[in-house]
Amino acid sequence: MLTETRATFDAAARLQDMGVNLELGGHTSATLASADLIVVSPGVPLEQTVFDVVRDRGIEVIGELELAWRWLRGRVIAITGTKGKSTTTTVIGRMVSAAGHHTLVGGNIGVPLSDQVEQSTPETIHVVEASSFQLETTTTFRPWIALWLNFAADHLDRHPSEQAYAAAKARIFANQRSDDWAVINGDDEIVMYHAVDVRAQRVAFSPFHPIDNGFAVEGDWIVRRTSTAVERLVPVDAVELTGRHMLGNVVAAVATASAAGIAPTAMVEGLRGFRGLEHAMEPAGEVGGVRFVNDSKATNVEAARRSIESFESGVVALIGGHFKGGDLRELAGPLSERGRAVIAIGESAALVRDALVSTVPVVDAVSMREAVERAYDIAKPDGVVLLAPACASFDWFRDYAERGRAFKAEVERLREQFSAGPLRGTRPTANGG
């Protein structure tokens, strides 16, 4: 923390040396009213009253994504969705790069788009993860190819309504033209509804079902089907990711890469050796026959549901944190079929218990160490301990990455104990034990 504080002070000093006036700890209406342009952080709600005077004066308010777009020289492939954005963005970037293009990957994942401006050339293809927070402040942002993966209720602690959240996502298509491409999830009613009036050429994909005209899995292949032919593009065994929903992400990536003119050989090459991102269905090891999987990025109910559905049985799920909205009862179905128990963690532990205790045993834990230990006891001898929180991490941790690292550290501690001798534990009762 001391190092981070020092870095912040050093950055502030450099800005002041450049003649930048800093106003920290909040902004006054007078300062905002004197601006020519205001660039807001993605986490700042535009509904704040401090922006009222700005709106009255007609001062433009945009976000970093929009600002960067105005200076890029290359083309943009943009990816949004409630779940799977980071993995899909990474896969697309690998495919485009394997085809020999100058490729820069970033946005809401890794490097901000504004940091890519200096490297941007007319030949560059920017593969950009775009969040709802970033998209809602766009005005001219126009992706060459826009992919909307899926939609589910999320971020309702930040967006005023589910409709507002969907409208922010839909801005990914807002400025596209007839020579652009809109890649849409044919299985998602919300995505399809918002894509009805897009001006771009539409490309459909289906993560889980056959499709008459578009991209899907048929047998052992990801294929493109038209009214007259079926073209095999990527063999399913080229996908080294865990989970049915991860295969669905690859189908979306193949559809997008195809729109970009990427050959199937480059698609397969881009998948080679890619086993996923850290904290996204990441194998975290095995202890005494029990597997541990870190899906700390599953920060909403839909993401957690898909994580749980990736396993046949024996799942002990760690669920909880800072609740962002949605209906935790939607996890009851997959847990009734696959779940052995739930470990309720974080400030939403009571919500988790109320939603799921009638379906599976729910056990409270007051730390990540206790959560992992209790989950291991229940999962023995052959289960899966799955961190799929369905919530943000801001109660116990700085972010999902810190939460995932804490989970993995506790798994490693268990492994070291196991190697020293058998671990003992008591299986809790259905009401918490």
Distance between the termini: 37 Å
Helical residue percent?
Answer: 25-40%
**Annotated CATH architecture of the largest domain:** 3-Layer(aba) Sandwich
Q: Which regions are unreliable across 5 or more consecutive residues at pLDDT < 50?
A: 425-433
Strand order of the largest sheet: 4-5-3-6-7-8
Which topology of the largest domain does CATH recognise?
UDP-N-acetylmuramoyl-L-alanine:D-glutamate ligase
Number of strands: 17
The CATH class of the largest domain: Alpha Beta
In CATH, what is the homologous superfamily of the largest domain? Mur-like, catalytic domain
Shape: globular
How many helical elements? 15
- Structural domain count: 2
- Proportion in β-strands: 15-25%
Q: How would you describe what is shown here?
A:
- The chain is of the alpha/beta class.
- It has 2 domains: 208 residues, UDP-N-acetylmuramoyl-L-alanine:D-glutamate ligase, CATH 3.40.1190; 139 residues, Mur ligase, C-terminal domain (Protein-Tyrosine Phosphatase, Chain A, Alpha-Beta Complex), CATH 3.90.190.20.
- Helices cover 33% and strands 20% of the residues.
- The chain has 15 helices and 17 strands.
- The strands form 4 sheets. A 6-stranded parallel beta sheet has the order 4-5-3-6-7-8. A 6-stranded mixed beta sheet has the order 12-13-17-14-15-16, with helices on both faces. A 3-stranded antiparallel beta sheet has the order 9-10-11, with helices on one face.
- Helix 5 crosses helix 9 and helix 14 packs across helix 15.
- The longest helix has 21 residues.
- The radius of gyration is 23 Å and the shape is globular.
